[in-house]
Amino acid sequence: MSPSARSKPTVLLLGEVLHASVEWNALSAVGELRADQKACIQQVNEGDREQFIDDCESGIYDGILAISRTYDSIELTGPFDTELVEALPDSLKFIAHNGAGYDQIDVDACTKRGIAVSNTPGAVDASTANTALYLLLGALRRSHVPSLALRAGKWRGSMDLGHDPEGKILGILGMGGIGGALARRAAPFDMKIQYHNRKPVAHEQNPTNAKYVSFKELLSTSDIISVHLPLSHATRRLIGRKEFAMMKTGVVIINTARGKIVDEQALVDALDSGKVFAAGLDVYEKEPSIHPGLIKSDKAVLLPHVGTATLETMVSRP
Predict the structure, then answer these.
(1) What is the rounded CA–CA span in Å between residue 177 and residue 189?
(2) Could you report the per-residue pLDDT of 65-101, keeping only the tens digit for each?
């Protein structure tokens, strides 16, 4: 290796880059790319949390300046909590998380170690909003019921009538990039859009002029509630039995944010009782496990956390 190459900062990749390998390899112009001690350019794409922490403490990753981690790398390392962060090499100064949400990383623990954390807000706005709209329309019609019946050779099966979106009140919980993108997509369906946020958003973040309402008003007046909040201590199980009781009978619930924001058992009970007409979900409390009540319910439209799984999102977006 040349002296100039040795002088480059060293970057460790956790997980596997599937759709942007050209862009990843291009980073070799500014840094040495590596994943473990066995090769010059590779990825950590096997092992477990205990092994990774042991490798950190044994000095295998000494000298690493930055870590780039994929969302799915949590299966290899577990969350970047205090225990793991304390084991990271002293040389580490940056963690780049390939995702909009950063609930897998204890930012406070990183800050105490002098480690900066970055994420990718905005990169997944369009694809996630598209998925939310797909789930919204599918839940209103419970479209999966006749679709499954058709594939089983039963034509429409025992489908019930669904609902049209026109005139429905859409309550967006969290008017960030994804919430705003959903509002723009829902507006042409003649839906009445309202939202709740920690505070009203600026006009440029509210192109549909959606009405700002309190959390309680959003729960009690919306025909459809779509969740677009980050997961935090404040939002964990934000929607539970008490909140479902406040909602309209026949409400539709959409969640493409984080599964832990909604009490899954309370949602199953609300579906079974008829309080909730239907739910469209891309995220779950204990992924990849899904509550058996959701699997059994013909009122639940389910996707396996694929809201950002488009080539345009993975490759083209910044």
Answers:
(1) 20
(2) 999 998 889 989 999 999 999 999 999 999 999 888 8
| Calpha distance 111→66 (Å, rounded) | 14
Shortest CA distance to 252 belongs to which of 131, 126, 141, 114? 141
Distance from C-alpha of 203 to C-alpha of 209, rounded to nearest angstrom: 8
Contact 246, 216 (CB under 8 A): yes
- List the structure tokens of 43: 């990825």
Could you list the active site residues? 258, 287, 305
CA–CA gap between residue 30 and residue 9 (Å, rounded): 7
Closest CA to 185 of 251, 252, 137, 254: 137
- Burial letters 229-241, b for 16+ CB under 10 A, else e: bbbeeebeebbee
Query: pTM to 2 decimals?
Result: 0.86
Burial class (CB in 10 A: 0-12, 13-18, 19+), 46: exposed
Residue with tokens 């002098």: 114
Q: Model confidence at 28, in pLDDT bands (50, 70, 90)?
A: confident
Chain segment 152-207, per-residue pLDDT in tens: 999 999 889 999 999 999 999 999 999 999 999 999 999 999 999 999 999 989 98
Burial class of residue 8, CB neighbours in 10 A (0-12, 13-18, 19+): middle
